[in-house]
Amino acid sequence: GESVGLHLPTLSVQEGDNSIINCAYSNSASDYFIWYKQESGKGPQFIIDIRSNMDKRQGQRVTVLLNKTVKHLSLQIAATQPGDSAVYFCAEKGSGGYNKLIFGAGTRLAVHP
Amino acid sequence: DVKVTQSSRYLVKRTGEKVFLECVQDMDHENMFWYRQDPGLGLRLIYFSYDVKMKEKGDIPEGYSVSREKKERFSLILESASTNQTSMYLCASRSQNQPQHFGDGTRLSIL
Q1: Which of B27, B55, B48 minimizes the C-alpha distance to B90?
Q2: B97 to chain A: which residues are within 8 Å by CB?
Q3: B72-89 pLDDT, tens digit each
């Protein structure tokens, strides 16, 4: 089975509630950030990205917020569904450019009916 | 949709064997990547390639090599497999100024 999430923090939510997944990044000079979703047995799937000239970006049921002052990124999922259950990673563009992303360890989102 | 295909979902090999992991993408992307994913450590970059026959070391290249003879294909090679190379291996690709898209991974066990 999938073992990538053995030691991850877990966020448990009720179906229909809003979810907020947080991520602290390390480099104040980072100017590009991405959120990925990884379901059990699958590779990471791109959700949404944001550049540092923005504070907020919205997609379909998802919103990413960027607070550069405290180096904090969050992913908000509206009306969480069972299909949203997965591990969520943030990634920042490191000093090596777009080809050398720095990935967070991830947060497991568990959606309960 | 971008399609990144890894040739094997599960692979079991023995210590000392030479192991090849294959990855193919169908979107004519210039950049391709190999990562390994271990519990609690996140994704770690092994190697990447920004063009045919070009390669760059990532954060953990030791014990690995890569080959990119064609634009669509990027191979990861374990020259002499060891048990500490048991892991999930993920391939990704991207075009300029676009996010990376991942395959579904190869779970490699070295016995």
Answers
A1: B48
A2: 98
A3: 999 999 999 999 999 999
